[in-house]
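User: Okay, second chain of the day. Same drill as before: sequence in, structure tokens out.
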Amino acid sequence: MNFVREAREELGLTIKDLAERVGVHYTTVSEWELGKIVPRPPRQASLAKALNRNIEELFPRNDLPKAIYEGILRVGENEVDCAVLENGKRVITQNAVFKAFGRPPRGTMASRNSDPRLPGFLDATNLKDFIEPVVLEGIQSIEYISKSGKYKTGYEATAIPLVCDVYLAARKAGILRPNQLPLAEISEIIVRSLSKVGIIALVDEATGYQNVRALNELHQLLSKYLSEEKLAWAKRFPDEFFKQLYRLKNWSYPTGTSRTPYVGKLINQLVYEKLPPGVLEELRRRNPVDENTKRRKSKHHQFLSEDIGQPDLRDHLLQVIALMRGSPNWKSFEKSFTLAFPPEIIQGEFDLDEL
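Assistant: Same drill. Structure tokens below.
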């Protein structure tokens, strides 16, 4: 979409009208709208002024993150716009931050403060000593594209409690001016209901992102933990694992490759179920049981990624083998295993003596 033409038409201007306002020939404006040429920064500024738009709205950057969820968040007594970006960041619009503190929106005031990174709601000279590095880092502006395609500037949601900390610390030190005292009062109201962790949950609830957050996080985990394609078979389970397993169960160790059918179930309980949640379910989906043979065509570990999944499997096996070696019998091993992998992260209780 050509935003120059869109803005011109919304104002009811002809190409010649816009050309006169900007001070160029009408064919130049036509080339801008057709995308044949891009005006230089000074001309972009003239266009923005003539069309009553921000430069970024007329010439948006393609590298900016996009908002995937948007909503309204109640902060203190105000309702402010918030969003979740495609990179997972939770943001509050620049105007919304001003609104949260009951102040009219304005940009930075570099002339009043030597640090141009400070936004207008923290640029007062008497606040400078209370702006620690962690605060400065947390209040840097973020540019993004809204769901409607508009260019926006905002801050990470955690910027609000950081700003509150500054005003409350300044009030405690007794250096606030009379016109700043209401901001400290607002800050006190906000911190009663927010925390640096709780704000994230509140934004997710306001935007509806909480409903898909777990799925997104699981998808990100599986994309790193599992391989996109099945890998060639390689020996991943050491012989020592099976030797110790048979010893603890008082089974005769097989001389060939045939093993008791219970071994597969024990492998799931001791190994695959202890991998990150969701991994075993996805492995079963990718490596289903053949309806004819009633067996899986491949081994689960062939679907684990070489850089993350397989090293994690190896580390887990080494832990299990160590527990096995230190156990005189199955009951002792089961107790040690439960201590190493507490019930809250185990897929249910099990009594392997019945196997």
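The beta strands are 67-75, 78-85, 90-93, 142-145, 151-156.

User: Thanks, on to the next one.
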